[in-house]
Design brief:
Arginase, Chain A, globular
């Protein structure tokens, strides 16, 4: 799996939007499409999984992974697409976009209760699987949830393509410091994702420690590459 860069690499912590933000958002969405087409990893800013159908939210202007999913369905005949989101935060925008669509499975591992306040244990449907985790969860809790909930859900769905909303803000050194996931945990989550479908691609979501994020992206790439079966 290759990494593809687009847009400014980081948002300043005090910046919500600027005159070039929309251009960056469009580039990010286009890069997510390219990643989906090539089984790559779109390293983009701004992220996307909080963006709702008609509303920007949580630093997200366009829902990159949703755009990529729809493109692959419309242009490449991928009838069933699964999205696995392991960002610290619930991907509320992705859930809302696909809530009534039985051709897209959305599975999210996230801290709860926490921003944006969605994705609780009762918020489920046939093709929406929320896995709320308590704060201070680490590798053991994440991987147990992945094995017991995520893998069976994706295997039952049988996707043609798996897209990963890869957020790294659950890492133990992230400024949010809500979770205790390690570098090896990131690698292993990515490795297990890569084994779930004949084609797999990823899109960067959160991750706010600029010192550790490059290292975590490398760990994720190693995990995705270990079991990736498509090019």
């Amino acid at each position: 799996m290759l990494a593809t860069l687009s847009g400014p690499h980081w948002f300043d912590a005090d910046t919500v939007a600027s005159e070039t933000s929309w251009t960056a958002a469009l580039l990010a969405a286009g890069t997510a499409i390219e990643a989906a087409e090539t089984s790559g990893f779109a390293l983009v800013r701004p992220p996307g999984h909080h963006a709702r159908p008609r509303t920007a939210m949580g630093f997200c202007l366009v829902n990159n992974v949703a755009v990529a999913a729809r493109h692959m369905q419309a242009e490449h005949g991928m009838e069933r697409v699964a999205i696995v989101d392991y960002d610290l935060h619930h991907g509320n925008g992705t859930q809302e976009i696909f809530w009534e669509d039985d051709t897209v499975l959305f599975v999210s591992l996230h801290a709860w209760p926490f921003y944006p306040g969605t994705g609780g244990p009762t918020e489920q449907s046939d093709t929406t699987v929320n896995v709320p985790l308590s704060t201070e969860s680490g590798d053991e809790e994440y991987l147990l949830a992945f094995d017991s909930v995520v893998i069976p859900a994706v295997e039952r769905f049988g996707p043609d393509l798996l897209l990963v909303s890869a957020g790294f803000d659950a890492h133990e050194e992230d400024p949010y410091r809500q979770m205790r996931v390690t570098d090896e945990g990131v690698r292993e989550l990515s490795r297990r994702c890569a084994a779930l479908a004949p084609r797999v691609a990823a899109v960067l979501e959160g991750g706010y420690n600029v010192a550790t994020l490059p290292r975590l992206v490398s760990a994720a790439l190693e995990g995705f590459s270990e079991n990736a079966t498509a090019g």
